[in-house]
Amino acid sequence: MNDDETFEVDPDSLRKGKAVLSELGSYTWSILAEFDAAMADTSWTGNDDNGRKIEANYVSNRDSISGSLGALGEVLERTSDATLLNLNATSTTQSDILDGIDQEIDSYDIGGPGDGGRRG
What we know:
Helices cover 73% and strands 0% of the residues. By secondary structure, it is mainly alpha-helical.
């Protein structure tokens, strides 16, 4: 909103925001890949009863974190796409509104004084 409370879209700002979201999404996918690679090995837990308990807890927590990172990457990616869709829809709407205003203006007969013309 502007100071006069009219809604105005700044396409450049939306494009920059989309780029930031896209970049964050890429970073998240990279972090997820590194995390999954680093945390894949469970051989250190051992093969006895205690080791299997440790492994079960470790794998559960590891998979939860991995799932959260994947969900974050998905959210950032979808939000980035939605930002671009919003920009396109808003730009189209603004363009349609301006075209309608231009058509309305063109429909007025603006003549000189005394000729019965309507002033816009």
